[in-house]
Amino acid sequence: MSLIYVLNGPNLNLLGKRQPHIYGHETLADIEADCRHVALELGHDIRFHQSNREYEIIDWIHEAREDAAGIVINPAAFSHTSVALLDALNAFEQPVIEVHISNVHKREAFRHHSFVSQRADGVIAGLGTEGYQLAIRRLASLIKAAEKK
Ligand code: DQA
């Protein structure tokens, strides 16, 4: 059973309470349960983390270099600011899917650019919290395709 990391950036611990008209009513715990369910169905285990601290997310990406077959990441506001996250992901050799709950392209101009997108193998935005499950499905296909090579 290979391992998928699901990493979440700042303020996502407030999901369910934070601007529900933008981010919906599901909590991060609900998202984690959905991710576990889909991952299990596809034969993967997940490690699910959230932090408001950039260095902690970087440390998890480094950890993933040792034991993960892929990463799903919602870097939240760090998407738009963090070269350090991009560098960490560039040092990770397995597939990466970036997720945004909201459609960042429909929002303020500063959300239109993501450093992480430069590394991501795919980007999902605006599909709500369902985006996480779709990202895991895509990651599982990429992992399977890589195994066949
Ligand atoms: C977000 C979009 C970001 O612009 C924002 O800073 C977030 C959440 C999303 O999931 O839609 O915190 O990544």
Short description:
The protein is of the alpha/beta class. The protein has helices spanning 20-23, 28-41, 54-67, 83-90, 130-148, and strands at residues 2-8, 44-50, 68-74, 96-100, 122-125.
Describe the structure.
The longest helix has 19 residues, at 130-148. Strands 2-1-3-4-5 form a 5-stranded parallel sheet, with helices on both faces. The chain is 40% helix and 20% strand. It has 149 residues and is an alpha/beta fold. It has 5 helices and 5 strands. It is globular, with a radius of gyration of 14 Å. The mean pLDDT is 97. Bound molecules: 1,3,4-trihydroxy-5-OXO-cyclohexanecarboxylic acid. Residues 11, 74, 76-77, 79, 100-102, 104, 111 line the site of 1,3,4-trihydroxy-5-OXO-cyclohexanecarboxylic acid (DQA).
CATH homology superfamily? Dehydroquinase, class II
Q: What is the helix tally?
A: 5
Q: In CATH's first tier, which class applies?
A: Alpha Beta
Strand order of the largest sheet: 2-1-3-4-5
Count of β-strands? 5
Kindly give the count of domains.
1
Work out the helicity level. Answer: 25-40%
In terms of per-residue confidence, which ranges show pLDDT below 50 for 5 or more consecutive residues? none
Radius of gyration over all CA atoms, rounded: 14 Å
Distance between the termini: 18 Å
Query: Which structural class best describes the helix and strand composition?
Result: alpha/beta
Order of helices and strands: EHHEHEHEEH
